[in-house]
Amino acid sequence: MRLQGKLAIVTAAASGMGRAGVERFVREGARVAAIDISAEALDRLVADFGAGKVVPIVADLSTPDGARDSIDQAVAALGGADILWAHAGMPGPASVENLDIDAYRKAIDLNVTSATLGAGQVAAHMRARGGGAIVFTSSISGLVGSMMSPIYSAAKWAVVGLTKSLALALAGDNIRVNVVCPGLADTPMKAGFTGRSGDPAEAAANEAKVVGAVPMGRLVKPGEVADAVLWLVSDEASFVTGVALPVDGGFTAR
Ligand SMILES: NC(=O)c1ccc[n+]([C@@H]2O[C@H](COP(=O)([O-])OP(=O)(O)OC[C@H]3O[C@@H](n4cnc5c(N)ncnc54)[C@H](O)[C@@H]3O)[C@@H](O)[C@H]2O)c1
Predict the structure, then answer these.
(1) Cα(137)–Cα(158) distance, rounded to whole angstroms?
(2) Residue 51 confidence (pLDDT)
(3) Which residue's CA is minimally distant from atom 21 of ligand 1?
(4) What is the pLDDT of residue 198?
């Protein structure tokens, strides 16, 4: 088992890629604190993967208190932390024109601030255990521009910058910091990118447009992202830090 005895924290853990990550972390021997805003979805997670292996923590990560306190609760419940996958994020407004400033701030807070605070809260605990691994979630929109999601793209570029900077700052403590950059993924959040107008035909057309630009010609499966994260937090990636890893079927290779 690749994570035997490890203490892991996953945010936005109850659905999509986060859930696939929890499944893999548990399978590989870790105890996992799973943070999410949905108590119901967390209940299902615990029922599926086992109460002894998954500690559910309900929190709104778009608030600084929620982001900080939930990580503190996770560390206390696990008795330390070796791994953090700070995965929470959201699409945000579709345009900078007539910008809804509250929606803008919420997107920045969930995508960037929660990741920043998560790393900030966990670093000392990792240092105390001789090191650790942090993975953030950016996007293809954190590596190239996004016509449909400018705020999201700005936030996800910030997450890549945070990754590289923290990789430098924490390398001496044996804490590795990396980020995964998925393409459009087959999860509930997909509709937040392709279906903003609420028109299913438009959502299908937008999805087809994105898939048409993916050299491998399909959406990302949640498990494919979780597999990349599993490798990044495992000892197999022991000398890998500061990397923004696309999981995108070649989308950003052009
Ligand atoms: N789905 C995509 O196409 C895609 C592509 C690239 C990157 N991403 C990134 O992946 C991450 C999550 O995406 P997913 O596709 O796994 O999503 P998902 O929709 O499957 O799951 C999102 C989870 O986040 C939780 N959540 C929502 N708001 C929250 C809040 N304020 N506090 C705590 N938890 C909250 C939800 O309850 C849900 O369990 C985000 O960072 C997103 O930007 C998604």
Answers:
(1) 11
(2) 87
(3) 15
(4) 86
What number does the ligand 1 atom closest to the CA of 189 have?
Answer: 19
Q: Which helix (H) or strand (E) holds 117?
A: helix 114-128
Indicate whether residue 63 lines ligand 1 (CB < 6 A): no
Best probe residue, ligand 1, of 17, 116, 159, 225 (max atoms within 8 Å of C-beta): 17
Q: Look-up: residue for tokens 């989308």?
A: 251
Output the pLDDT for position 58: 98
> Which pLDDT band, with edges at 50, 70 and 90, does 3 fall under?
very high
Tell whether 254 is covered by a domain.
no
**Is beta strand 175-182 parallel, antiparallel or unpaired with respect to 132-137?**
parallel
Distance CA 137, CA 248 (A): 13
pLDDT for position 148: 86
Supply the range of the domain harboring residue 81: 7-248
Token pair 């793209």 in the structure block, residue: 153
The verdict on residue 180 lying in a domain is yes
Nearest protein Cα to ligand 1, atom 41: 89
pLDDT at residue 97, as a whole number: 96
Tokens of residue 249, six digits: 């079927």
For residue 152, indicate whether it is catalytic.
yes
- What is the number of structural domains in the chain? 1
Q: Is residue 1 part of a domain?
A: no
Is 126 among the domain residues?
Answer: yes
Q: What is the pLDDT of residue 147?
A: 86
CATH number at residue 57: 3.40.50.720
Task: Kindly give the distance from the C-alpha atom of residue 59 to the centroid of ligand 1, in angstroms, as a whole number.
Answer: 14
Q: Is the pLDDT of residue 196 over 90?
A: no
Percent of the chain with pLDDT over 70: 100
Q: How far is the CA of 36 from the centre of ligand 1 (A)?
A: 10
